[in-house]
Design brief:
The complex is a heterodimer of chains A (95) and B (376). Chain A has 95 residues and is mostly beta strands. Chain A has one helix and seven strands. In chain A, the strands form two sheets. A five-stranded mixed sheet of chain A has the order 2-1-7-3-5, with no helix packed on it. In chain A, strand 1 and strand 2 form a beta hairpin. Chain A is globular. By secondary structure, chain B is mainly α. Chain B is 63% helix and 3% strand. Chain B has a two-stranded antiparallel sheet with strand order 1-2. In chain B, a hairpin with a 2-residue loop joins strand 1 and strand 2. In chain B, helix 3 runs parallel beside helix 6, helix 3 packs antiparallel against helix 7 and helix 8 packs across helix 9. Chain B is globular, with a radius of gyration of 23 Å. The chains are: A mainly beta (95), B mainly alpha (376). At the A-B interface, loops of A face helix 1, helix 8 and helix 11 of B.
């Protein structure tokens, strides 16, 4: 089932199901920090305000309470998330 | 209490705290208090790489073509990286092994420090490849004032802990007179030193290293010194894992289930610990002045690097539960992300070990329904 992802002070969208949350956000051209993309560096954390996610691989990174690691999880319900530093969209390369 | 390499007492290792409990005896991993350290070890082992896998032949030509002020930036940055890994290759062993009480954590510390020695070896590999007289560069690390100043800031917490622990092992707790000076040795004081050391190690791996990575990748961003950047990518992958390790240790210390006294120390010393992050950010900004003293390079200058220092410091402070210090919200070097990601490192194909192939790819639990798509 498709779930709605709401970015606080941003916008809402429905991701393609096969994507990790990080990939889904990137597809929406949201600026996201990342490094390892496999759950050990912790760079791609966001705050989970509401909803539930399921981890596709067990993260090794330390994840504080209330945060989720976007590179290795997918939405399990509708989500409300907050991106540290705010929701910024990438500028298009085409002028 | 003297250190013993094989503790003959019988006890339940699972009940020991991470540090300052009983000395470890059997290196056993069948039961573990904190399985996260085993996961870190396995991940680190799957990362194993050798600097010689990366071809640096074009870097020699690239380096020769750099203008003088960029040579200064590149070499100073490399010297700084060499300093950091010289420290990290030995200090976790010297400082932490005598006081660790859990076998899985002990092995993680050893695995962690070992991987830093690979980094040191790769700096020699790089320096040998780009200059004809490597000795000049290495010798300068201990004489160059800008670098030795940094060494002092980085090592003082380690050194204070090592000194305290060695006195404790020799003399035990209590008041002692050493060389005419009265010294009060207490476990609480040693735990304070340990806490500050862990904070400063986290700062070293999570901030200082990343500032140096930014400089390395700034060269590659304009298609020069790319072999060097490939090596730095592999180093960055290891460092990301190490900083996760120290974040876990700091978190376990702060939450109090491991050792209630350590949690009280973490609470009491919060301001001092926070200050270590802030001071390090200032030191890194000073360093940026030194790097760019003769001029900037395309894509990176003193100001942008300073902003990156603030950005990454904020991020690391939040990660260990501190309030961020600086106003900056956006990553001033967005291209760092793709450089830091190591899965696209091209090394000699016959040597390559893609980490994701090596960990967790075997699934031994096969059920009948797994074959439901097959028909004969």
């Amino acid at each position: 089932m498709a779930h709605i992802i709401k970015i606080l002070e941003g916008f809402s969208f429905i991701p393609r199901e096969e994507l990790s949350l990080l990939e889904a956000l990137e597809q929406q051209r949201v600026e996201m920090d990342y490094q390892c993309r496999e759950g050990f560096c912790g760079s791609c954390q966001v705050s989970l305000i509401d909803g539930e996610v399921v981890y596709t691989t067990d993260p090794i990174a330390f994840i504080p309470e209330g945060k989720i690691l976007t590179c290795c999880c997918r939405p399990k319900s509708d989500l409300t998330i907050e991106i540290p530093g705010g929701c910024k969209k990438k500028k298009d390369n085409v002028e | 209490m003297t250190y013993t390499t094989f503790n003959q007492e019988q006890f339940d290792a699972i009940k020991e705290p991470m540090f300052f409990g009983r000395n470890v005896n059997v290196s056993r991993y069948d039961i573990q208090k904190y399985p996260i350290f085993e996961k870190l070890i396995e991940k680190q082992l799957s990362f194993f790489w050798r600097p010689e896998e990366v071809d640096l032949s074009t870097d020699r030509r690239d380096f020769a073509a750099l203008p003088d002020h960029e040579k200064h930036i590149f070499l100073s940055n490399l010297k700084y990286q060499t300093l950091l890994d010289s420290i990290q290759g030995r200090s976790p062993n010297v400082a932490l092994l005598p006081i660790v009480s859990l076998p899985e954590l002990e092995t993680w510390i050893e695995t962690w420090a070992f991987s830093e020695t690979i980094h040191s070896r790769s700096y020699t590999h790089i320096i040998r490849n780009i200059v004809t007289e490597p000795a000049k560069i290495f010798d300068d690390i201990v004489t160059n004032e800008a670098i030795t100043k940094r060494a002092r800031d980085i090592t003082r917490y380690y050194d204070a802990l090592i000194e305290g622990v060695s006195l404790y092992h020799q003399l035990g707790e209590g008041k002692h007179v050493i060389n005419g000076e009265e010294v009060n040795i207490s476990i609480t004081d040693l735990k304070r030193r340990l806490y500050l050391t862990m904070i400063s190690v986290n700062v070293l791996e999570a901030i200082r290293f990343y500032v140096s990575f930014a400089c390395s990748f700034a060269f590659a961003e304009r298609s020069t010194m790319e072999g060097n950047a490939k090596i730095i990518k592999l180093i960055a992958r290891d460092e990301a894992l190490h900083l996760t390790g120290t974040q876990h240790i700091l978190q376990l210390m702060a939450d109090g289930k491991d050792d209630p006294e350590m949690a009280a120390i973490a609470r009491d010393m919060k301001d001092e610990a926070r200050q270590i992050f802030i001071d390090a950010a200032e030191q890194e900004k000073d360093w940026a002045h030194y790097l760019f003293r003769d001029g900037s390079m395309i894509g990176l200058n003193r100001d942008i690097l300073g902003q990156y220092v603030e950005y990454i410091t904020n991020q690391r402070m939040v990660a260990v539960g501190f309030e961020p210090e600086f106003a900056i919200k956006q990553n001033p070097l967005p291209w760092m992300n793709s450089w830091l990601n190591s899965d696209n490192v091209q090394v000699a194909p016959q040597e390559v070990e893609v980490s994701s192939y090596l960990v967790g790819q075997i699934d031994s639990e096969v059920q009948t329904e797994d074959f439901s798509n097959f028909s004969l």
